[in-house]
Amino acid sequence: MFSPICASDPSQTGMSRARNRALVVSVVAFDRGVDLPARKGAKRDTKRLHKVLTRLGFQVDFHTDPTAEEIYQLFKEASEGPVADCFVGVLSSHGEEGVVFGADGGAVRLARIFSCFESPAMVGKTKLFFIQACRGVELDSGVEVETDSAPGRAAAEEEDNVSHYLSIPIDTAVMFATPPGYSAFMHLTGSVFLQTLCDLLEEEGGRSLEVTRLMTRLNFRVAYRFQARGGQLAGKKEMPCFVSRLTRQAFPFADAGGAEPARAKDLQGLNATVLIATSTRPRKQSIS
After folding, report:
1. Model confidence over 148-198: pLDDT tens digits?
2. Do residues 215 and 175 make contact, with C-beta atoms less than 8 angstroms apart?
3. Positions marked catalytic
4. What is the phi-psi region of residue 215: left when phi exceeds 0, alpha when psi lies from -120 to 50, beta otherwise?
5. Residues of 70-104 as b/e, b for ≥16 C-beta within 10 angstroms?
């Protein structure tokens, strides 16, 4: 049985105005008999995401250890609720290409999750998804690590390898911790992917970025500042990637009432793939 933990609901405090919303779904421990290891670091990811997104004005709901069917239901319900401008969905578990796994070991097809967000409530809203899960077993050139792959499981059918891309609604961007075929790293201190996302959202120069530039900077941070070390996996890397069907620029994480996004003249000819290098303190390079 999964445990829901929710941020305060404005409807319960007399506030009915729609807010930006986030749904964070994380599988930390799998049911007895499911041949998948626990993901202890996921607790730190969830706790930090809740803190960071709440500070940025999001109404955050997070749920731990739901079954596959419960995951579908959570996202279905989220897709039908009111939202001001932006919905953020985070899904963290073991996975393979096109699927992640519920606490019961059941496969959750990302295509089915994404298709929920073609609902009337989400028309014209910015939808962002962050997927922390392996998409295969290959290692991108550290210590013996815990990864988010599902060992010994059959790969998803070939048609499912692209169906989740085709099901991404308009005005949506999906960011994956790793490219197709590769593993994503998880450590007791959290995943490099989601922890780096939180780092950026806590920085004034990160959270005020247009969202595709934010994702590009996240790619850079993980790719160039993370490297596993020790053991036979020394030097292995992780490279996030994202798919965008956004039709307009979006600044969903800019502080409400805080610093304004970049000036209009600075946005002229914005290229979503522009790499913005920053001089920041490197993340500790050990993963285990």
Report:
1. 655 554 444 444 555 567 789 999 999 999 999 888 888 888 999 999 999
2. yes
3. 94, 134
4. alpha
5. bbbebbeebbeeebeebbbbbbbbbbbbbbbbbbb
